Amino acid sequence: EGHTDLIWKLASIPDSDLFVTGSSDGGCRVWNVKDGGEVGKEMVHGERVHAIVVSRDGKTMASGGCDKIVVWSLESREKIVEWKASSSVWSLAMSQDSQTLVTGHSNGTVILWNALTGGHIVGPFKLQDGGIRALSFSADDSQIATGGLWSDYIRVMYSYSAEVPFPPFKAHNGWIQSLVWLPNGQLISASFDGTIKYWDTSNAPLLIATSQGHTGSVCTLAVSSDGKLLASASHDGTARLWNTST
């Protein structure tokens, strides 16, 4: 039972004991964290799934892969809308109101879409030389942060224009694997170099703190809804919880 190939992404469903996985087998599945059992039917994307994101209200999710983007109802597990991707989708982020979906692509561009209809809003914007590995909306949806393959620089843009609040900045000694924004406006980055860093981006980026503990690259981050707890997972085979206020 379960996936038959590599699992690329995992995302929790807010206010529940459920989480979603996306796999190279072309499917997305929902699981119960308490017993590990699968819940409901598989959502069949088609080609391999590189990225998933769950809406803040837990009602919908999106999957992206080599060929297309699909928005799903998590209640019925049916497709709401799908559209063709111009290049492979490597990362996804959804606005706080679940209305806007941003896609990060293998060619280093990001595009903004209407998450309900699949309609194009703006983009593509070229933000990275390599594929967009990390992608995150700020807490107020006004900015989007990106990290790219083979790049140790973070690039931030205003959400609906090509303008930037500050130039790209070197954040790590390895490419950026994951980015999350806290409700207080701090940006957290995780890298192939095994570190997690906290940034004040209210003006020019300022390093606030660095968390070390993983012995391998940090591949993904997730933050609690109140911003107080941060979870990280690493290629060292461990997951860790961090208090963001200390």
Automatic annotation (TrEMBL):
First and last residues of every WD repeat: 1-41, 86-114, 169-209, 211-246
Domain of life: Eukaryota
Gene Ontology cellular-component terms listed: transferase complex
Transmembrane segment boundaries: none
InterPro entries referenced in this protein's UniProt entry, alphabetically: WD40/YVTN_repeat-like_dom_sf (IPR015943), WD40_PAC1 (IPR020472), WD40_repeat_CS (IPR019775), WD40_repeat_dom_sf (IPR036322), WD40_rpt (IPR001680)
Keyword set includes RNA-binding: no
Keywords: Repeat, WD repeat
Pfam families: WD40
Matching PANTHER family: WD REPEAT DOMAIN 5B, WD40 REPEAT PROTEIN
Protein name, as recorded: WD40 repeat-like protein
UniProt organism field: Paxillus involutus ATCC 200175
